[in-house]
Amino acid sequence: MILFRADYLRDTATRIFQAAGADPEPTSILVDHLIAANLAGHDSHGVQHIPGYVRAVQEGRVQPNAAPVVLRETPVSALVDGQFTFGQISARVGTEVAIAKAKSAGVAAVGVVRCTHIGRLGTYSTLAAEQGVVLMVTIGAMLPATAPFGGRKPVFGTNPFSFGFPAADRPDVMIDFATSTIAAGKVMLAQAKRESVPPGCLLDQDGNPTTDPKALSNGGMLLPFGGHKGSALATLAALLSQVLVPAAETGGGQLQTGTFIVGIDAGIFREKSKVEAETDEVIDQIKAIPPASGFAEVMVSGEPELRTADRRRQEGIPIPEDTWAAIVATAHGLGVAIPTAT
Fold it and tell me: Which of 41, 83, 247, 325 is placed for a possible disulfide with 66 were both Cys, Cβ 3.0 to 4.6 Å?
């Protein structure tokens, strides 16, 4: 592993994406998203995606400077066309529309179509909670990545969900999870680090349990977390973001999954400050529980990410050697000189 300062990675990623043809504004949003994921400890959604995103631009699967537009809307809903720009741009626009409509009408439902990989979902729920809006975002697909409960062939993507809930003096609550036992990006990260994945996460191409991360790219599959419960949530994610949201209908021939976002103004039923204050009380009750054996304390969803970010801002962000080599090769392929890291 190599440790890098966040600013160094941000500068390097910015140089690469601008050399690939992205304008400064979309580059800034995308790079901030990637670095924030690394800072939060979710390296599976961070700079390791740089080579893949650049290839997608070069192959025409991503239009880096396209501007998302609203196709149709009502006071409480909107359908956003991402126009195949970076998914982080499309999902942010969809989130901002959901926030604005929730603040105006109390609730809002937003679908995003023609949307590429949107990265870490917690970014969007955090953005909403900071503005006093409860938010759920999910993206689901029928892809050959995750087996359904009781199956030996894949049918789902990782079909994640994220929720944000505003607090008062406590940090906002942020919940973010894949419905597979492990995210596909974390399998990629384990492969880059030359490590095994935990038991119970993967099946090989023949449906046999394995801990070898290479199995996923060799015809293997992920498993749903919690057995039938994770499988049910994966089904819900697909229905919301691929059926309710007309992803395939508007996909233009490309494989699409769609993004579904629901925003609720935290003051929809009573004064927002009371909701946020009681959120603090709920958090306090949870954290007052004595820790189980092997744990130093009870933490609330979103708290580990905040602590990891504080630590990594001081100590640096660890990047596997193989991941960094791929980033450097991508930069050199674009004629980008990588400054020496300190």
Answer: 83
Tell me if 1-65+303-342 shares its fold with 67-180+224-288. no
Res. 257 pLDDT band, cuts 50 70 90: confident
pLDDT digits (tens, 9 = 90+) for 1-49: 899 999 999 999 999 999 999 999 999 999 999 999 999 999 999 999 9
- In terms of phi and psi (left: phi > 0; alpha: psi -120 to 50; beta: otherwise), the region of 195 is beta
pTM reported for the whole predicted model: 0.92
User: Shortest CA distance to 322 belongs to which of 132, 150, 188?
Assistant: 188
What is the CATH topology of the domain spanning 1-65+303-342? Hypothetical Oxidoreductase Yiak; Chain: A, domain 1 (1.10.1530)
User: 67-180+224-288 maps to which CATH number?
Assistant: 3.30.1370.60
- From CA 281, how far away is CA 242, in angstroms rounded? 37
